[in-house]
Amino acid sequence: MPKQHYKPETYRARDSIGYLIKRVSAMMLDGIEAAFEGHGFTFTQWVVLMYLRDGIALTPAGICRELRHDSGALTRVIDQLEERGLILRKRSVEDRRVVELELTRSGRETVEMLIPLTVDGLNKALDVFTTAEVDQLKSLLQRMYAHLEANAGNGQPAEKAP
Predict the structure, then answer these.
(1) What is the spatial distance between Cα 126 and Cα 14, in angstroms, rounded to a whole number?
(2) In terms of CB atoms within 10 Å, which of 5, 51, 73, 93 comes out highest?
(3) Domains assigned to the chain
(4) Pairing between β-strand 87-91 and β-strand 99-103 as defined by DSSP bridges
(5) What confidence tens digit (pLDDT) does each residue in 12-29 have?
(6) What pLDDT score does 59 carry?
């Protein structure tokens, strides 16, 4: 049985971890998105480039899963990036039904050029914390992510190991 950090009778949405994470994410995105606009990019376009650069997802389907994004909308983003010469679509050697995405040289240069915008936005958002607090926050979120990922699909959180 999981710990009872929340109780139905005292639960308020604004105190929910989910609500707080979602709001913080949205507010950070607003600031970073505005910075990207001046460079002719959306944050979603940049995320696609970063996922390819870092090997997080290399297919449109994989990127959709990671972003939890609509496949039709993502296809338009990929089309835009391909038209700009930033990515290439290729058929998989292992399975011709699968389309793989690859950064072009220009795509790699572009993503590297845009990283400072995100770094600046993150640093502004985290300015109220010490370095140790940022490290702790990242550690806690990574632990929460790993816990949720390990238990995805079974509907139950894992029992804590003794």
Answers:
(1) 20
(2) 51
(3) 13-128 (1.10.10.10)
(4) antiparallel
(5) 999 999 999 999 999 999
(6) 93
Distance CA 129, CA 111 (A): 27
* Encoded amino acid at 83, one letter: E
Q: 63 Cβ partners below 8 Å, 6+ apart?
A: 48, 51, 57, 69, 74, 78, 101
Q: List helix spans (H) across the chain.
A: 17-37, 43-54, 60-67, 71-83, 105-125, 131-150
Predicted TM-score (pTM) of this structure:
0.82
Question: b/e per residue, 39-57, with b = 16+ CB within 10 A?
Answer: eebebbbbbbbebbeeeeb
**CA separation, residue 103 to residues 46, 75, 95, 100, 106 (Å):** 12, 16, 20, 10, 8
pLDDT tens digits, residue range 42-97?
999 999 999 999 999 999 999 999 998 888 889 999 999 999 999 999 998 888 88
| pLDDT exceeds cutoff 70 at 156 | no
Query: 100: which strand partners?
Result: 90
Instruction: Report the length, in residues, of the chain.
Output: 162
